[in-house]
Input
Amino acid sequence: MAKNTPKPQASQGRGFSWCLSFFVLIVAIVAYFTGLLDYGIENYEEFHHERVKNFYGQILVDFHEYHGGYLTFGLWRNYTSNEKITKFEDAAENLYYELATRFNLTKDSKFLDVACGMATQDVYLVKKFGCNITAVDLLEKHVAIGKQHLVKAGIQDKVKLLQASATNLPFANESFSHVMCAEGGPHMHTREQFWRETMRVLQPGGVFAFSESTLQKRTDSWLAQLSYRMASYLWRCSVDNIYDNEEYIRKLQQIGFTDIQLKSCNLDVYPDYQLSSWEDRAQLYKVRGYLTTWGGAFIDLILRAYSEYEVIDYVLVTGKKPPNA
Ligand SMILES: C[S@@+](CC[C@H](N)C(=O)[O-])C[C@H]1O[C@@H](n2cnc3c(N)ncnc32)[C@H](O)[C@@H]1O
Output
């Protein structure tokens, strides 16, 4: 009778194959987006640099004059007047003003700007502080556009702009009195190697100023680990840079820096960046199309939520190479 007919073996087998394929697919996607497939890659640093170059290379297409050429989140509160800032370029320049004043940049400083992007910040810093600058960025394309910005501003004699990696700086020991890096750190493989390079190229008593995204308090649950790794992959950051503020300071101290000051300012960065961006979306849509515009909006929303739930932080950090080092 039809009622008692056992299910055909083939259909059971097919169900199992579908489940197995689905499981393998999920594992592969997770492994891919968490970077687990990268283990064992020879010369990982070069591989990672290529990834970072492709990431910023794509952003560059049709995009380099957007946001005035700045690639930062900006600092949306003026800490001198305590006033809120409402325009993107003002927030970007406020960040650079804050960093420069925090480590006393003057016209006589021997100043190295690492991860300078398209040198927009250097145009601002030269005009504001009258300093000479040596600036480096990983991307040849950023350096090429940066040189155009310098010529346009008529300050090509004040800024020496080079392509180089922060992790292997092409400068002699003790060449600089001031080293700055805004938002390059998370991308570097590794940020600690850049800090060792900073220690090497700074003169005794020299100072640094960094700004970047960090974790407020690292959680070790597997779900948190997974989300850190996925965010690192999507943002082309090195997984070796995933640690919280406490560890950040400890690692700087281990390298030998002193007088370390870390100011946490995530709520003056991500929420306003996310809101400010809305008014720019329409303009961005024309340049970047649907997917990138709304994908970017979604990522900004997540960043904002993470900052409000005190997962992610944005820090301004200064410190010193001891005078006797
Ligand atoms: C978020 S952008 C910030 C750029 C710039 N500070 C600004 O505000 O426009 C990060 C920059 O870090 C650079 N970068 C990433 N890894 C680097 C490395 N290993 N050495 C030097 N620059 C690097 C990228 O090319 C990019 O220009």
User: Anything to note?
Assistant: The pocket of S-adenosylmethionine is lined by residues 52, 56, 70-72, 114-117, 120-121, 136-139, 142, 165-167, 182-184, 187-188 (CB under 6 Å). The CA atoms of residues 274 and 302 lie 9 Å apart.
